[in-house]
C-alpha cells in the first residue's frame, strides 16, 4: 500500500522537522493560548520609553514644607491687634491735640472783639453816644471775624425761600408777593452750604388763595 507524502506517519514525516515546527505553532481548535510575540529592537525601545533611548526616571517630588503652627498664627494675630490698638490710641491723641489747637486759634481771633467792647464800656460815662458807635463797630468786627473763619452772615430779604438757608417761623398771607418770598429776617444765618452755624430765621409770604 503506497504511503501518502503528507501523512503524519512514516519516515518522511520523521525527517521533516520544519513541518513539525510549523504544526506546533498552530493552535489546536482555538484552545491553545498564543505564544509570546517577538518584537524588534525598535519596538522594545518604544515600549520602554523613547525610541532608541532609555526611559527617563520620574523626578523626585519634595514633600510640601510645613506651614506655621497654631501657636505662631496666634502670636501673629496678637501682635497685629496690639499694633492696631496702639495706632488707634495715637490717632486719638493727635485728633484731640488738633481740636484743642483749633479751638485756641478760633478764640484768639475773637480777642480783638472783646478788647473793643472793653474800650467802648470804658468811655460810656464820658460820652454815651460814643458807646453806641463803639457797639456798632464791635458788631461789624465780629461779623467780619466769622466771615474770615468761613461763616459769612446771611440776612437777605425779598429772595425766594430756600430750606438750605432759611427756617420759616411765620407765614403772612395776601402780601402781594409771590408765594415763598422772604419778607423779613428775624435772625440772620451764618455759614456756607457745606458748613453752617445756623440758617436764617425768616417770615415768608403765604398763598393768597389759601
pLDDT averaged over residues:
77
The general outline is: elongated
* Separation of the first and last Cα atoms: 150 Å
Helix content: 40-55%
Low-confidence stretches: 1-15, 43-52
Major sheet description: 3 strands, antiparallel
Give the strand line-up of the largest sheet.
1-4-5
Q: Give the helix/strand class.
A: alpha+beta
CATH class of the domain at 151-210: Mainly Beta
- CATH architecture descriptor text of the domain at 151-210: Roll
The fraction of residues in strands falls at 5-15%
The total count of helices amounts to 6
Say how many strands there are. Answer: 6
Order of SSEs, N→C?
HHHHHHEEEEEE
CATH superfamily of the domain at 151-210: Head domain of nucleotide exchange factor GrpE
Radius of gyration: 56 Å
Q: What name does the CATH topology of the domain at 151-210 carry?
A: Nucleotide Exchange Factor Grpe, Chain A, domain 2
